[in-house]
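ok trying this again, last paste got cut off
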Amino acid sequence: MAQLIVRNLEDDVVRELKLRAAQHDQSAEEEHREILRKALTGENAGMPLKELLRQIPNVGEDRDFERSTDRGRPVEL
């Protein structure tokens, strides 16, 4: 079997992977394999959107998605 090394992952992503693995009672390595299998073989096809959204790791801050209040400069037409 082939091996895959993933470098330069953010600490938050690694932490979420380990938490998710613990929730599924498996190693981080096995969880990583499962995520890749599902992403690349289409096992998520037909899965409800709600379930897909639940699988997204909780990384980042809510403020990352806030809209800017800057409306640009006034333009004369």
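PB: full thing came through this time. The chain has three helices and no strands.
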